[in-house]
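Example 485.
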Amino acid sequence: MVCFETEEKEENSSDASGGLISQDSPIAAQSGWLAELRTSGEFTGKLYEMTVLHRPEGVAAKRLVIVGGGKKEKFSGVEARRIGGVLVRALKPKGIRSLVLALEPSQAPWVLESAEGMVLGAWEADKYKSDPKKDEKRIDSFTIAVPGGNEKTLREAAERGRVIAEAQNLTRDLVNEPANKLNPAALVAAAKEVASGLGMMCEVLDQEAMAKLGMGALLGVAQGSDNPPYLIAIQYRPPVPYDGEHLALVGKGVTFDTGGISIKPSDGMEKMKYDMAGAAAVIGAMKAIGQLKPSITVTGYIATVENMVNGKAQRPGDIVKALSGKTIEVLNTDAEGRLILADALTYANRNGATHIVDAATLTGAISIALGHYNIGAFTNDEELMNRFLAASRAAGEKTWQMPMDEEYKEYLKSAFADLPNIGGRYGGSITAAWFLREFADPTPWVHLDIAGTAWLDDGKAWLSKGPSGVAVRSFVQLALDWSRH
Ligand code: BES
Ligand code: MN
Ligand code: ZN
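Predicted structure in complex with BES:
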């Protein structure tokens, strides 16, 4: 049960519920314990504050947990989602198996987000921990109870929330896998499983097929690994095609990034298993899209390689020819994401994409610019950017638009090829975006740099540490909103 903070001015009011919750709360109306709790000062309604009552009068449940909603006027889907997560994460270790979230009628608009929050909160990065009690710390059933309202609408909202959050959890599962368990072939298997389960087409180009097409940029990165690369396409087609528009979601799937010959420092290198978070977000989004059936054709493209160092690895100074025909001087083998995406973007363009959004753990520089809270977004088309930003906001993800002035392009100059794969020391995430733009143009395109947001170093009260599954909800929302334009 979610209760809001008391207005200062109501401090001494004689309101029966102590001002904690609105008068329409059926639970509050049943007894005086809420008022008592309020007067005792034990519970103020501050955001995420929690109090447990055992067998309170008038309630059938063994325990009633009251959680603070903060200021009522500031309450939004973001808080609702987090409260769902906070509840699950606080109760899970206590051996509780079933949870009913009781909302007041006024909180009914947040059913979708509450459902999402509970499913997301239940996820843990503990797959490889052999804690024998793990299974006992799992909630088996979540229920959201809302008195009154339209049952069908409420059920649909809860169901949507579940579908989206489960898709996001699939993304987190994939990102959580270490690179010895998840290589490019394993990512192919995961994509195929999602596609076949939902009747979507899944096409996979292997090394030979890519060589025939001339994907020199992607293959140059892949040649340093014994694990072969793939380019995956999963396609969702709507029941009724919409205006011939075709959204492409493109993901960076580097299952491990050593940096190649321009090798990374060993400190923290283990985290480079998450360098396929963009690819995993595309797979997760396609799973939700296949279930929620938006009215636009969506193809998810996943470029997957391992950036390793064997005797055949590409060297700094190597010049490769991309599928688009442009030549690239590889000045740094650690700037591999843009190389594989270059060919994936060209491929998406050649296969009829009218709009492209890519997600990639592309640069460390984006964390320097934005920290760990905002996705950095870049575009060649303000209209698509605005659509994306609106979708991202509606889905409760934070995205910040980054500049793409022509001046930054000047940092990308090669003496020996059409372009180098790195710019200078400054504006690293912007030069990376400009590099991609050379392959996305002229199609409206948004690039998401999720290097700063795809991994949570510290857990939150509502979310486990580890993979965040960022971008999934924005992707799904963008596709669902399409018909409304
Ligand atoms: N995968 C990395 C980016 C990254 C860094 C992701 C930290 C997550 C956390 C990417 O391939 C990379 O190495 N980028 C280089 C680019 C540089 C060589 C121009 C970087 O950011 O240092
Ligand atoms: Mn790299
Ligand atoms: Zn990388």
